Amino acid sequence: MVPRSAPPPLRAEARRIEVKLMMDGKTYPTVGFVGAGNMAEALVSGMRAAGWPAECVWVTNRSNRARLDWLRARYGVCVTQRKDELCEASQVLLLAVKPKDVPEATQQLRPFVRPGHRVVSVVAGLTLASLERAFPNLPVVRAMPNTPSAVREGVTAYALGRWATEEDAYLARQLFGSVGAVVEVPEERIDLVTGLSGSGPAYVFFLVESLIEAGVRAGLAPEVARDLVVQTVFGAARMLRETGLDPAELRRRVTSPGGTTMAGVGALEEHGVRGAFVEAVERAARRARELAS
Ligand SMILES: NC(=O)c1ccc[n+]([C@@H]2O[C@H](COP(=O)([O-])OP(=O)(O)OC[C@H]3O[C@@H](n4cnc5c(N)ncnc54)[C@H](OP(=O)(O)O)[C@@H]3O)[C@@H](O)[C@H]2O)c1
């Protein structure tokens, strides 16, 4: 796992590539987003905040011109409704459409794809084998980021296709590392990652909603409850990251026998919250596998 604050590890091959890119006067490859929805925006927003130049980010969608104009106004990126123009401008094609729209999008791209392009997909359930069938002989990367990428606190797992090289691994680390932590996993783990960290922010938002509701029901003003809960979640996450301690150990340290926290955690155990999270991850991962088929 590469923490956001640390530079991505540069293997020998990758180091050479960076030197080559810098000699070309260009440190960033041009990334063309196919799809301009929530996930594309999270990545665009994080990449721009990380200093990715606006002229190295292109975006297209199917038909929503207003959305493209909005993205251009907000992030300064280049937009087009033409796939030939997107392919011409981009070295990396980043597929960010819904799984059901993949056949149409790949069919539209195929006439304009050329050797030298690389394809990175963030589509849940879309396998490397399918990507390689859609883009024969091109290096492909299957990635699973999550939406906190928008604030450069995302986490992305990726797997490489059979034509992908160290250069593609470096690209994945450069691209997703600019918006959070990055980890390479075998492809058979990506569906699990989808259920865990891809869908994970929604589980945390659900937890936050529930805690705020509990605070309000007990008599707190909604904005006070929100401030208390958001800062608690943020502080707990920072403690986990900065101490590196096991969560069970951190929990033990705030739970004195017979005390208030023990009473609260007891209620969570009685209501099967742990089991509910296990089931949530399994069900989301199963859904990712279903989408693949
Ligand atoms: N949201 C997440 O947390 C998350 C996390 C990890 C991965 N993902 C993956 O990211 C992908 C996109 O999710 P999303 O939430 O961003 O979806 P979304 O908000 O519905 O956006 C989908 C985008 O795809 C565009 N599109 C559809 N068909 C197209 C085509 N033929 N050519 C070009 N663009 C096309 C749509 O354009 P129009 O609006 O013009 O139709 C829209 O901009 C999904 O496959 C999902 O599995 C999402």
Offer a concise description of the structure.
With 293 residues, this protein is α/β, with parallel strands linked by helices. The chain has helices at residues 12-23, 38-49, 65-75, 83-89, 102-109, 128-134, 166-177, 190-198, 200-217, 222-243, 247-253, 260-270, 273-292, and strands at residues 31-34, 57-60, 78-79, 92-95, 118-121, 140-144, 154-160, 180-184.
Describe this structure as you would to a colleague:
This protein is of the alpha/beta class. 53% of the residues lie in helices and 12% in strands. It has helices at residues 12-23, 38-49, 65-75, 83-89, 102-109, 128-134, 166-177, 190-198, 200-217, 222-243, 247-253, 260-270, 273-292; strands spanning 31-34, 57-60, 78-79, 92-95, 118-121, 140-144, 154-160, 180-184. Strands 3-2-1-4-5-6-7-8 form an eight-stranded mixed β-sheet, sandwiched between helices. α7 links the parallel β7 and β8. The radius of gyration is 21 Å and the shape is elongated. It starts with 11 loop residues before the first helix and ends with a helix. The structure holds NADP nicotinamide-adenine-dinucleotide phosphate. NADP nicotinamide-adenine-dinucleotide phosphate binds at residues 34-40, 60-64, 67, 96-99, 101, 104-105, 108, 122-124, 144-147, 198.
Largest sheet: 8 strands, mixed
| CATH class call of the largest domain | Alpha Beta
Strand content: 5-15%
Ligands bound to this protein structure:
NADP nicotinamide-adenine-dinucleotide phosphate
Number of helices: 13
Shape: elongated
- Fraction of residues in helices? 40-55%
In what order do the strands lie side by side in the largest sheet? 3-2-1-4-5-6-7-8
Structural class: alpha/beta
> How many distinct folded domains?
2
According to DSSP, the number of beta strands is 8
- Assembly annotation: single chain
Distance between the termini: 29 Å
Q: Write down the secondary-structure element order.
A: HEHEHEHEHEHEEHEHHHHHH
Radius of gyration: 21 Å
**CATH superfamily heading of the largest domain:** NAD(P)-binding Rossmann-like Domain
Low-confidence stretches: 1-25
